[in-house]
Amino acid sequence: MDFLTELEAKINLVNGALQKYFVKQENYQASIYNAMEYSLFSGGKRIRPVLCLSCAELFGNGEEAMPFACALEMVHTYSLIHDDLPCMDDDDLRRGKPTNHIVYGEGMAVLAGDALLNLAAETVLSHAQLPPALTLEAMKAIFVSSGTEGMIGGQVIDLESEGKPIDAVTLMAMHVHKTGALMIAAAKAGALVGGAGREDVLNMENFARYVGVAFQIKDDILDVESTTDVLGKPIGSDSANEKTTFVSLYGLAQSKKMLEDYTQKAIELLDCYGEKADFLRELSLFLLRRDR
Question: How confident is the model at residue 226 (pLDDT cuts 50, 70, 90)?
């Protein structure tokens, strides 16, 4: 099976599981389910759940990782809903569609994000079929990485940095937390579920840390080079919001060089796994070459 076929198969598995775990209710709260469904099934790339499943497969059986993979996608989707709000990045377009608050209003969008975060925890607690201690360790990896010392912490730096220049150390800290933390959580949770030892878990965390930085550099490049039609969201928003990015700090040429370097560093960490890690190698290169 070639990489793109395998990637599509994994995405379809994730989408099928999300449909299974997300159960709409026709009750007084029906509107919140509609808002949650709108963003959760709006056509995301599913990179984090695919990464989680693939790391689990590298060390064992990926099937047991599905609840954790879907929880990661729910957390990621909630973060996007909140990130688009007028009090945050104030974006009107996401994945080629109007953002959640444009369709359902700001209050419902806030609640939809909150509900997806809760659903992520409910999904693991209801569907994980692992020993309790291992379930809790993998679950902790996800929710610590999405909290104040992870994704939310990166968003804090982002908010406080708007409208003023920041240095390279602060920029890296922001994105290792805001973008990289969930990537690291995906790799760590997947490796744990797959039965990896401590050294391998740490290695996969480092792999995902490089992938996460590369992912953000690519996002910054696309914000300059892509189009709204291709990207599915407004381009030039970083500049409009007066944000320091890898491109604004290092320039386009140097940012592209950094993208290549971080991707190569990630791939080198897979050398010890031989052909078993081929999908993860190809995934790293796919993210480097993506156009959205």
Answer: confident
